[in-house]
Design a protein that fits this description.
84% of the residues lie in helices and 0% in strands. The protein is mainly alpha-helical and 141 residues long.
Length: 141
């Protein structure tokens, strides 16, 4: 069980690294007009999303489900857990939104401004804070 928890936490850290950094790359990508720099951003974004983002999201979900399976009845009756799972679902949606935006950038079709991406980049931070508080400050029972 401790190995599963450790692997879950490692996966979460890797996934959040992508959720923090990829939208920051979008900020800079949206700000540049230089074609060579745009092409470099496309490569960086694609490698980050596919090489780290997707595997770490899948690992987070697999190890998280595995960890909850050890005491499923406790988690099913815990309000904090249901709230956390709602946040996890929104993160998966956010992750896929990043993938859709990445494809728009790859086709040079993204029209959103760097200001949009600066705000878009804040969501994972809010979710991280909420999830950590839910897990650490949970009430027994």
């Amino acid at each position: 069980m401790l190995w599963v928890k450790a692997l879950h936490i490692i996966s979460v850290v890797c996934w959040f690294a992508v959720l923090f950094y990829l939208p920051r790359l979008f900020v800079y990508h949206a700000m540049t007009d230089n074609p060579a720099i745009k092409e470099q951003f496309k490569i960086m974004e694609r490698r980050l999303y596919r090489g780290i983002g997707i595997p770490s999201m899948v690992a987070t979900l697999v190890f998280g489900i595995w960890a909850t399976s050890y005491n499923w009845s406790y988690y099913m009756h815990s309000g904090w857990f249901h709230i956390k799972m709602t946040f996890v679902v929104t993160l998966v949606i956010y992750h896929h939104m990043c993938g859709a935006l990445l494809k728009q950038f790859a086709r040079d079709e993204c029209t959103k401004s760097h200001v949009f991406f600066r705000w878009f980049n804040e969501y994972p931070t809010l979710v991280l804070v909420a999830c950590v508080l839910l897990v650490v400050l949970k009430q027994p029972g």
